[in-house]
Design brief:
520 residues, alpha/beta, Bacterial polysaccharide co-polymerase-like, Rossmann fold, 3 domains, 7-stranded parallel β-sheet, 4-stranded antiparallel β-sheet, 14 helices, 13 strands, 49% helix, 14% strand, elongated, Membrane-bound polysaccharide biosynthesis protein, cell membrane
Length: 520
């Protein structure tokens, strides 16, 4: 039955939880905001430190003999590529009397097709005057080359048409000679041959006239194309605005940095697999979230944040104090990623219990953080973990320890027979949360509940486990309670009688920092 329950749970779990991904990325806003700010600064600095070189621009109207209304820009793209040839670059450099190599000069200019017949030429140089001179020389070289090619094309076409016309004339002369040699008074067979010769002569006359007309049109059309190819916008320096360039570069850097930051945060979230939602943490630990507490605010926090945190701490202290009073065994607070907050919670709970009798805090945190601090008037006694045996039996004990990597698991039993896990959201990986639940189950330390530190304020998921049978990897049925420290858990006894149910001790509910959130 456990296998079927686990398989059903795996089938219902999505491969990628988008809600958890969004929450985790939002929690890492410092990362992507920092990268966005860095991109903004680098973009602005790049525009200031590396301004663009002086640039001049001109526009050339290019007429083509093959122009069509439905042209997709093929002809103007051809002209742009022709502009980037050593022949035109050499002509421009000759006009400028410059010793520069055409290959180097080609790196300093570019052509852009604006329409089917309009091309923009941009040229960079050391100064604006030199850029304007280069743009003019380059435009003149392109126009001259285009005109030369149009003339050569028209001349070659006209020559071909005239040669074809001459061949037709030679054939026409042979036909006329054949007609002159025939006798008009011949028989009917000769008459049919003469009629075909006359028809051929008429066809040749028509074709000769057509070739002559087409040759004339080729000659006449060339001046129109030559006159249509011209510089329509004189070369001029392109104005450069440093503030505008800085704003543009900064905006581009901001967007790129933001996209990079979001991508890094998303990938890091998926790879790290650190649960941040209540239901994820509860499912991985196999225990319900009983309370939430915002991260302890800094000194610069706003007044309303301090009030909200104090109210949440007060509710949590009351709830944990009530739980400790009703427990027959010592209770411990085990932290994961929030040692300082756990110390504060332990002191608050100990102060609340001090009115009913002596209370001692057993400090099992790495470095004995509580035992080594200076004790203030009214604070409960704090002893280190190795001195826990010296505490009298009639004195109520409250253990404080850690389940972070490197924990000595066997020492946790001396802190308390039952525990409350204090976990910071997004700190431990899912694998480590499973490890914590498994180790506590092997030590027979029931988990009363989980106190979630620094939760996502927009988290509306449920952190209560109604049936936690599939959540722990080992010992899932003995995890909860052992009456008076011994015996068998009720869940274990019920395994052979019917469907297993996880029974939990009654746990008080503590409302979270936000008024609309409550974890039971």
């Amino acid at each position: 039955m456990t296998t079927s329950t686990t398989s059903d749970s795996s089938a219902s779990t999505p491969l990628l939880d988008l809600q958890a991904l969004v929450v985790a990325v939002r929690r890492r806003r410092r990362l992507w905001c920092s990268l966005a700010l860095l991109g903004f600064v680098l973009g602005a600095a790049f525009a200031v430190l590396r301004p663009p070189p002086p640039t001049a621009a001109t526009k050339v109207l290019v007429a083509h003999q093959e122009d069509q209304p439905n042209d997709t820009g093929t002809l103007i793209r051809t002209d742009v590529e022709l502009l980037k040839t050593t022949r035109i670059a050499s002509k421009a450099l000759q006009a400028l009397k410059s010793p520069e190599k055409p290959e180097d000069f080609m790196q300093d200019y570019r052509g852009t097709g604006i329409t089917n017949n309009l091309m923009r030429i941009d040229v960079t140089a050391d100064t604006e005057e030199k850029a304007v001179a280069r743009a003019k020389a380059l435009a003149d070289a392109f126009v001259a080359d285009h005109v030369r090619r149009m003339r050569e094309t028209a001349k070659a076409e006209a020559k071909a048409l005239l040669e074809q016309r001459e061949r037709m004339r030679d054939e026409l002369a042979k036909v006329n000679e054949a007609i002159g040699e025939r006798d008009p008074e011949s028989d009917s067979k000769e008459s049919a041959s003469i009629e075909s010769l006359f028809a051929r002569r008429a066809e040749l006359n028509s074709r000769i006239a057509d070739f002559a007309q087409r040759a004339e049109e080729a000659r006449v059309g060339t001046p129109r194309l030559i006159a249509g190819t011209q510089i329509v916008d004189a070369p001029r320096a392109v104005p450069h605005s440093l503030p505008k360039a800085a704003v543009t570069s900064a905006g581009i850097g901001l967007v790129l940095g933001l996209v990079l930051g979001l991508a890094v945060a998303a990938v890091g979230t998926v790879v790290a697999d650190r649960p941040v939602l209540r239901r994820q943490i509860a499912a991985n630990l196999g225990a319900s979230v009983i309370a939430e507490l915002p991260r302890l605010p800094r000194r610069s926090a706003r007044l309303w944040q301090l009030r909200r945190t104090r109210a949440a701490r007060s509710r949590l202290t009351t709830s944990l104090a009530r739980t400790v009073r009703g427990s027959a065994e010592p209770v411990s607070l085990l932290e994961l990623g929030c040692a300082r907050t756990t110390s504060v919670i332990a002191l608050d709970v100990a102060r609340a219990l001090a009115a009913e009798g002596p209370v001692v805090i057993v400090d099992g945190l790495p470095g004995a953080q509580l035992a080594g601090r200076r004790q203030e008037p009214g604070d409960p006694d704090v002893v280190a973990g190795e001195d826990a045996a010296s505490v009298p039996q009639q004195t109520r004990r409250l253990g404080v320890g850690s389940v972070a990597p490197g924990t000595a698991w066997t020492d946790l039993r001396f802190l308390g027979g039952r525990t409350v896990l204090v976990v910071r959201a997004g700190h431990g990986s899912a694998a480590w949360l499973h490890t914590v639940a498994r180790q506590l189950a092997d030590l027979d330390i029931p988990v009363i509940g989980v106190v979630l530190i620094d939760p996502d304020p927009r988290d509306r998921t449920d952190g209560t486990l109604w049936d936690g049978l599939h959540t722990a990897l080992r010992g899932p049925f003995r995890r909860m309670t052992r009456p008076n420290g011994g015996g068998t858990a009720h869940a274990v006894q019920a395994v052979g009688d019917g469907p297993p149910r996880t029974e939990r001790p009654p746990v008080p509910a503590a409302r979270a920092a936000n008024s609309d959130q409550e974890a039971r």
